[in-house]
TrEMBL record:
Pfam families (UniProt xref): MRJP (PF03022)
Record's keyword terms, sorted: Secreted, Signal
Presence of the UniProt keyword Signal in the record: yes
Stated name of the protein: Protein yellow
Source organism phylogeny: Eukaryota, Metazoa, Ecdysozoa, Arthropoda, Hexapoda
SUPFAM superfamilies: Calcium-dependent phosphotriesterase
Main location: secreted
Annotated GO CC locations: extracellular region
InterPro entries documented for this protein: 6-blade_b-propeller_TolB-like, MRJP/yellow-related
Family of the protein in this entry: Belongs to the major royal jelly protein family.
Signal peptide residue numbers: 1-46
Length: 481
């Protein structure tokens, strides 16, 4: 209506427009229309790039898992047969008490953790070759026999898990306390993070004891960790203490740490505390346990963040929280529930989960203990409907513990029948520990692509085409006015 009135009242404008030949006006109109459509396409493309910056390719069909290593009992590369016999005779080596828990990869080796829950575990961190030369290889203590000396607080005491970051630094969780399944655990050595720079080949250990206000030496249980190589290098560590569970945040740059707590998401629940595996029933009310770290993404404000996924062992729920929330040290002093508004309950799983691992594309691999299953989930989909079974076998998949990736696109998983170990029912006549392998074509989350922060506005790339399209639309309207 406004243009109609303008044309009625302004004869001079009508006279100016009439000077343009009709064919030229039509040609200009077609050009303007083409530019407008191009601008709309550019806007849509920019918006699509923004919305799919963390999107992943469709999940490929997985190669079937196969057994590459298996043991009835764990043995070691001894200096001599006499030394092995001496360890056996003094109960410093009790084969049935040596359990494989964690696994990681670097170079030509798989690193295995052997937590000292019971006596008779001569080394708590060891290696085997990635390339299979024997179905039941003997383990080589790492970095050395002396570095695993029991009772020496400068040596490794109780290693539950390790992670190796993109810079070749091994992060070792050493609980310090040994004999956690005995009547009198030994708390002589403090809980610590131990660093080894694997690139140098010297394997020198840097030990960082964790402060008492963060970790209680008598009750804490440092279970698993993920490493975030941003802003000074952070580790997010699950402490499934029966007294004070939570996520410990450790910043390597200044060696500072704090604990974030939330009873609603980090405590075990009674309905998930009973495990039934192949006719064996065990009650394990264990708190926050598994943890994984998603790829980098841009927040609405244009900052880079990551998602931390976690679950109690005795729970059917999977939870998520942004790493930026965990990094907020002030939330550690405000008590239980301070981060509850920031935690998302993603939904339930068919069974309980111990170990889990994220790959570089944002696909989470995790075990479903009661179902004898290995599952995966593309984290760009809804967890409630996006879970997918990739392996199920009640004979070979009995308690999925930990995962790792090599640099050739393979995933490895430790199966350790933990329920038998805890109930003291380990039989040396049966296979108790297995390592399975499958090809995924991806690497560890450690090698997820870096994302560049957007400045000054995170939406700038999409806004410019939108403004251009609006201006062209206005010009197009005036041309036909």
């Amino acid at each position: 209506m406004w243009h109609w009135k303008r044309r009625v009242c302004s004869g001079s404008r009508l006279r100016r427009q009439s000077l343009l030949p009709r064919r030229l006006r039509r040609t200009l109109a077609r050009i303007m229309l083409s530019l407008f459509l191009l601008a709309l396409a550019a806007t849509a493309a920019a918006q699509n790039l923004q919305n799919t910056s963390t999107a992943r390719a469709p999940t490929p069909r997985r190669e079937q898992f196969r057994v590459i290593y298996e043991w009835n009992a764990i043995d070691f590369q001894w200096a001599s047969p006499e030394e092995r016999e001496a360890y056996l005779n003094t109960s410093r080596y009790i084969p049935r008490n040596v359990l494989i828990s964690g696994i990681n990869f670097y170079g030509e080796n798989l690193f295995l953790t052997l937590p000292r829950m019971l006596e008779g575990v001569p080394a708590t961190l060891a290696t085997i070759p990635v390339r299979q030369v024997d179905t039941a290889p003997k383990l080589s203590p790492f970095p050395s026999w002396s570095a695993n000396t029991l009772g020496d607080c400068a040596a490794l005491q109780f290693v539950q898990n390790v992670e190796i970051d993109r810079n070749g630094i091994m992060w070792i969780l050493d609980n310090g306390r040994i004999g956690t399944l005995t009547q009198k655990p030994d708390t002589k050595c403090p809980p610590s993070i131990v660093m080894i720079d694997l690139k140098t080949g010297k394997n020198e250990m840097e030990r960082i004891p964790l402060p008492k206000e963060t970790v209680n030496a008598s009750t804490s249980y440092l279970n698993d960790l993920v490493v975030d190589n941003r802003d000074g290098d952070y580790a997010y560590i699950t402490d499934n203490s029966a007294v004070d569970p939570g996520i410990i945040v450790f910043r390597r740059s200044d060696k500072k740490s704090w604990k974030i707590r939330d009873s609603k998401s980090m405590l075990s629940v009674s309905e998930a505390a009973v495990f039934r595996i192949n006719g064996t029933t065990i009650n394990l009310p264990v708190n926050i346990d598994g943890i994984a770290l998603g790829p980098q993404f841009l927040t609405e404000e244009g900052y880079v963040d990551r998602t931390v996924y976690f679950t109690p062992l005795s729970s059917f729920h999977m939870y998520a929280v942004n790493a930026s929330i965990l990094r907020n040290e002030s939330l550690s002093s405000t008590g239980d529930g301070a981060i509850r508004p920031y935690i998302k309950d993603l939904g339930t799983k068919p069974s309980q989960t111990d170990g889990m691992k994220m790959d570089s594309t944002g696909t989470l691999f995790f075990g479903l203990i009661g179902n004898s299953t290995i599952a995966e989930w593309n984290t760009t989909t809804d967890f409630r409907v996006g879970q997918r079974t990739i392996a199920r076998d009640p004979n070979y998949i009995q308690w999925v513990d930990r995962f790792t990736f090599d640099d050739s696109g393979n995933i490895y998983v430790v199966i350790n029948r933990l329920y038998n170990f805890i109930k003291n029912q380990v039989s040396l006549d049966e296979v108790n520990y297995r390592i399975l392998k499958s090809h995924t074509g991806t690497k560890s989350y450690i090698f997820s692509p870096d994302v560049t922060p957007v400045a000054p506005s995170p939406h700038g790339a999409a806004t410019a085409p939108a403004v251009c399209a609006s201006l062209l639309l206005l010009a197009f309207a005036h041309l036909f006015a």
